């Protein structure tokens, strides 16, 4: 039933698509983080490393999309955007099925389980698990796959008339980043295409032909100083799913047949996600802890978007003159990410009184998303 | 601060309720440290199961009485546990344990009256106990060498838990 997705027709639509691209990258992060943080301390080191490395790159991709949007003179925003007569929230509420890219399937927050890994594969597979893109049911104003979505952005960046690029509010590579790839500052059409190309090259929106290439082939940029090679997200998760590494000669579409990758699904906190509406009475200690986590996540996202719009954040400081000074919100967001990890782990250790075999699961609910 | 007791209380549940009462942190915050099981075991090692059973019994009765009378100052618990020469020193040890992740031996006066166990010596209970010490959360700080708060965070004022 699939028809070719409509191309992006003008600058307004391109800007809206980029707002949604930023949200798309952000929306995968809680899915992976929930699994990562559910791993008990000191266990599953290889699995944790694989998931963590992908999260790092999703963060990079988010920033790359931000830089392209800023270069077009539009500020990244958490507010809903109009895209082809639909009003879409860039930041989702979980569990979430993207109306923009239905192929991805449901984004749900789960601890590290075989089902969770299956869902990761679905996100990162070129056709999201379908044999052919035509098998994905998709309206004409949406995109069947992440790949086709980024392709449309790429084509628009290349072909649209009247695009003016200037180097505004670019997130630069000033902070430590331990993942693969690097921040590209966007100042013209060429660097914009390079930034989107990097997103496609590293993972989501994996071009289908990559399945017929060596699973472990990487560009020099995706080789870390430590020697780790960051091949595609799909291949990394496929190894997790099968519990085997790819041999260096194997193609990505093949089943990994190399050495064992030890995944111990029992060394995982038995967290269980409870929908916001189904939550316990709001004054129980567990509800308070869950709400505090959501508040911390909301603040972290707000700090990020403030940084993306090139602004400083006023913070209270007793020693500063007038009791206030300005801080870099990007740095505050990084601190927030670290604190968020500790909060997430704490939730996943806390028994759910209504269901004592399970522990609490962070909801990553962004406050302004309905 | 929730102190709900399940209808069929289990010893670990009572232990958690006592800990909530002694530390000022709620059930979820204590559960979040991942230390409830470990500290429960520690207490049983330090004073023995028979004595722990007595502590749980009197504490539970007092907490129930306080709840029934809706007393905010928890006078019954204070009388039965904190001001009681038999349980007071143990309660003190539990507070230190939760805040510092370290067991400090019971006082000589206590041992003279109520006896002692061989394990009742000063020791760090576990590496996780140090990392999860309530002292860090109470001070809005982080344990040195663990839970790194991020580059430059030392320039920001501490943010105590709400």
List the helices and strands and how they pair.
The complex is a heterodimer of chains A (370) and B (162).
Chain A lengths: L10 H28 L6 H27 L9 E3 L2 E3 L7 E2 L8 E2 L6 H11 L21 H14 L29 H14 L30 H10 L42 H24 L4 E4 L7 E4 L1 H21 L1 E2 L2 E5 L11
Chain B lengths: L10 H13 L3 H6 L3 H33 L6 H8 L5 H13 L1 E2 L4 H7 L8 E2 L2 H5 L2 H6 L23
Antiparallel strand pairs in B: 1-2
Helix pairs in contact in B: 1-3, 3-4
Known CATH architecture of the largest domain in chain A:
Up-down Bundle
Helix content of chain A: 40-55%
Number of helices of chain B: 8
**Order of secondary-structure elements of chain A:** HHEEEEHHHHHEEHEE
Number of beta strands of chain B: 2
CATH topology grouping of the largest domain in chain A: Ferritin
Say what oligomer this is: heterodimer
Domain count of chain A:
2
The residue-averaged pLDDT of chain A reads 90
Q: Can you tell me the overall shape of chain A? A: globular
**Estimated share of beta-strand residues of chain A:** 5-15%
Shape descriptor of chain B: globular
Structure classification of chain A: mainly alpha
Low-confidence regions of chain A: none
H-E string of chain B: HHHHHEHEHH
The CATH homologous superfamily of the largest domain in chain A is termed Ferritin, core subunit, four-helix bundle
Low-confidence parts of chain B, pLDDT < 50 over ≥5 residues?
A: none
**Radius of gyration of chain A, rounded?**
21 Å
| Major beta sheet, strand line-up of chain B | 1-2
Descriptive overview:
The complex is a heterodimer of chains A (370) and B (162). With 370 residues, chain A is mostly helical. Chain A has eight helices and eight strands. In chain A, strand 3 and strand 4 form a beta hairpin. Chain B has 162 residues and is mainly alpha-helical. Chain B has one domain. Chain B has eight helices and two strands. A two-stranded antiparallel sheet of chain B has the order 1-2. In chain B, helix 1 crosses helix 3 and helix 3 crosses helix 4. Chain B is globular, with a radius of gyration of 17 Å. The N and C termini of chain B lie close together (12 Å). Chains A and B meet through helix 7 and helix 8 of A and helix 2 of B.
């Amino acid at each position: 039933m699939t028809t070719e997705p409509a191309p992006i027709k003008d600058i307004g639509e391109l800007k809206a698509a980029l707002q949604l691209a930023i949200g798309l990258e952000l929306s995968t992060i809680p899915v992976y983080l929930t699994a990562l943080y559910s791993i008990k301390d000191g266990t599953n080191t290889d699995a944790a490393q694989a998931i963590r490395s992908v999260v790092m790159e999703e963060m990079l991709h988010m920033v790359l999309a931000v830089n392209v949007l800023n270069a077009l003179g539009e500020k990244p925003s958490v507010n809903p955007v109009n895209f082809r007569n639909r009003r879409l929230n860039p930041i989702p509420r979980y569990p979430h099925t993207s109306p923009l890219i239905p192929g991805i399937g449901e984004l749900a927050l789960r601890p590290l389980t075989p089902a969770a890994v299956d869902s990761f594969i679905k996100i990162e597979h070129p056709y999201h698990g379908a044999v052919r893109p035509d098998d994905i049911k998709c309206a004409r104003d949406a995109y069947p796959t992440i790949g086709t979505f980024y392709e449309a952005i790429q084509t628009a960046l290349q072909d649209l008339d009247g695009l003016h690029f200037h180097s505004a509010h670019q997130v630069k590579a000033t902070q430590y980043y331990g993942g693969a790839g690097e921040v590209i500052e966007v100042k013209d059409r060429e660097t914009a295409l390079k930034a989107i190309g990097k997103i496609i090259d590293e993972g989501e929106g994996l071009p289908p032909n990559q399945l017929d290439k060596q699973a472990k082939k990487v560009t020099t940029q995706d080789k870390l100083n430590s020697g780790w090679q960051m091949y595609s997200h799909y291949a990394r998760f496929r190894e997790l799913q099968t519990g085997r590494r790819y041999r260096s000669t194997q193609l990505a579409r093949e089943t990994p047949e190399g050495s064992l990758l030890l995944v111990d699904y029992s060394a995982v906190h038995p967290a269980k996600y409870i929908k916001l509406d189904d939550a316990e009475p709001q004054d129980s200690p567990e509800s308070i802890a869950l709400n505090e986590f959501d508040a911390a996540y909301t603040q972290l996202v707000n700090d990020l978007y403030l940084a993306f719009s090139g602004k400083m954040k006023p913070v209270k400081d007793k020693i500063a003159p007038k009791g206030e000074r300005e801080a870099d919100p990007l740095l505050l967001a990084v601190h927030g990410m670290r604190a968020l990890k500790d909060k997430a782990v704490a939730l996943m250790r806390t028994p759910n009184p209504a269901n004592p075999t399970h522990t609490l699961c962070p909801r990553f609910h962004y406050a302004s998303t309905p | 601060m929730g102190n709900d007791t399940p209808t069929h209380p289990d010893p670990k549940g009572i232990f958690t309720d006592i800990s909530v009462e002694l530390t000022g942190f709620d059930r979820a915050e204590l559960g979040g440290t991942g230390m409830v099981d470990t500290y429960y075991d520690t207490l049983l090692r330090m004073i023995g199961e028979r004595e722990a059973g007595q502590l749980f019994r009197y504490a539970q009765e007092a907490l129930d009485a306080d709840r029934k009378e809706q007393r905010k100052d928890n006078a019954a618990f204070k009388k039965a546990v904190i001001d009681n020469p038999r349980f007071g020193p143990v309660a003190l040890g539990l507070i230190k344990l939760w805040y510092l992740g370290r067991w400090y031996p019971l006082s000589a006066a206590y041992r003279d009256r109520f006896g002692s166990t061989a394990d009742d010596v000063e020791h760090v209970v576990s590496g996780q106990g140090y990392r999860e010490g309530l002292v860090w959360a109470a001070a809005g700080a982080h344990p040195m060498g663990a839970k790194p708060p991020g580059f430059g965070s030392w320039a920001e004022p501490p943010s105590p838990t709400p």
